[in-house]
Amino acid sequence: MRKAFLGPRIQRLREDLGLTQAELARRLGLSASYLNQIEHDQRPLTATVLARINTTLGVEVQLFTEEEQARLVADLREALGENGGEEAIPLGDIKSLATNMPRIGHALVALHRRSQAAKERLAALATPPGAPGGAPPTRRPMPYEAVRDFFYHRHNHVAELDEAAERLVAREGLAPGAMEAGLERLLGERHGVTVTWAETDGADLNRRYDADHRVLRLSRVLSSGQRAFQLATQLAFLDQAPLIARLTDDPHLADSDARALARIGLANYFAGAVLLPYIPFLAAAEALAYDIDLLGLRFGVGFETVCHRLSTLQRGGARGVPFFFVRVDRAGNISKRQSATDFHFSRVGGTCPLWNVYEAFAHPGRIVTQMAAMPDGRTYLWIARTVDHSRGGFGTPGKTFAIGLGCDLRHAGRLVYARGLDLVHPEAAMPIGAGCKVCDRPSCPQRAFPPLGRAVRIDEHHSAFDPYPAR
Q: Which of 30, 83, 212, 412 could bridge 381 with an S-S bond, Cβ 3.0-4.6 Å?
């Protein structure tokens, strides 16, 4: 194991648990002076001491530190890149702040976001109503953004719902891949719910529940796996209502719309955990080298559902590959994004056009792979494939998305999709970024915007291949 200096994070976790240095040292079987040296990064952690700390604090400190630090670095780069200064803050300085003073880093990010919101409010107040060419109205954080952050801060893993789903599957003897009849029976026996088809052809409907008459109507066009998912979602709303209410009692979900969306997200999470129960699904994923198509056949669900579930497997002591999951349309809009790890999705500007999720649209239905390197030097394996959703007959509009699933390159050897790739030479990876405005690559011919916080060389006597050369 390489030398690990995690002192500030251990000190922070110890203080959050209300332990003194002497109390933690006693639990670890160490002297107080030795622990003091560890917390001040005067001594590295040995593998033995790290294992004791992980057990005592109830968290995998090294993994937690790497992921949290990377997330904070990405947020700080975005916030400090918009500071208006002529000189960009070096990445090394930002990493040092995130490592040694993470609370100050989080405070700076929060201040930046409040400042941006205040500027929008002031601009709106300074503009007479209806004035042509005026500033846009004040933009409150959208409920969808609040819910994305809600899951992001949980690393896209909700242990309570996973455990409840496992208990249900075991107690009721529900068989993965064939749960539709069992879930319908449970809704009838526990809640007196009758399941029937919707009166229409279901082109605009998946599920509709009539609480007064206890009737659940499902679309006729759903597959068996999709019907099972909708049945499990409705069971979540009825069976898990107290738990979902407790989980959504969160100050970050500030309004009723955000809380309602979070309840839907949690009910869908429970449904996925029922159809793809944690331990059996993780065991199958490892045995099949994370082959998404084979997992879909085994559990009777589609490509997108498998990918989404793979991004949630972060239970302590039984972790899968930490994936990040996105769903993107042809215009580059991200309609779903979940991260079990540290990959940063930009909040400003678009995504990177060199990302293979866009290449997937040129190869419908085929999985494309990509080794991709971010500006901070970290390298990832991405896989992407298109999925289609259509309803009704001829001429009815449908939906096409690209689903992307990525992981840090150090996990790539566990995936069937890494076969044939040169994992030993990361320099072979495609250089991409989180988005043009926050990407500080010195030269990129595909750049759509100049990077925030960096001056651009403008010279009427000089033309370059790079559209926004740095000064």
A: 412
